[in-house]
UniProtKB/TrEMBL annotation:
SUPFAM superfamilies in alphabetical order: Acyl-CoA N-acyltransferases (Nat)
Family the UniProt entry places it in: Belongs to the L/F-transferase family.
Gene Ontology CC terms: cytoplasm
Gene coding for it: aat
Enzyme Commission number(s) from the entry: 2.3.2.6
Protein name: Leucyl/phenylalanyl-tRNA--protein transferase
Amino acid sequence: MVPWLAFDDPFPPVERALGASSGAPGLLAASADLLPARLIDAYGRGIFPWYSDGQPVLWWSPDPRMVLVPAEFKVSHSLRKTLKHVVRDPLWEVRVDDDFPAVMRACAQTPREGQRGTWITADIVDAYTSLHRQGKAHSVETWFNGVRVGGLYGVSFGRMFFGESMFAHRTDASKIALAALVGHLRRNEIEMIDCQQNTSHLASLGGREIARRAFVAHLRKAVAEPPISWRFDKSVLAGLIDTPAR
């Protein structure tokens, strides 16, 4: 039985999440509220919300957990060629937090293979925008000729980044944003990006699964560290361009 959380109820331990043999592996709890304080508490414990319109807020902590280690980011021959062009061409920009809610809305409106609709509801946009105003959520945006053509957003506490969603309106635009994020996190010696659940796209970029226990152990240390700066531009791509292709 998945517990229902009243307004001030704490989360149960993540070990109580439904297992692989259930119909919803990783499901931990449900609630009616999606307040910023609840979100902050959730991320600090290795829990995230994922639900659709018409459902209660569903809270998840899967085992294993998909992560991307910045040092293991895969730069293919074609992506490296693209990044070189982006660095040289002044029409390409990488902006940070230019318009966080717009990035969320673009992610919500981007069709996903095998999905109908979106989990990025109006309540989700409001809640994460509140975190953004507190300096706890950020967008990395790819711009071409003055137009936002791709990007991503996520949550950042201490020395931990929790990736949420990406979009692209131009070939490789989301990969450029992700590469810029990885370059920035490498500069700041961030060891892990939370990717939540396994996808073939993330695996192709170097993502891999680790045990939830290992993820939570790293998380507890990382979120207790001082936050990093979130000022950077496309110059962070230079280090990735010099990385041997994989």
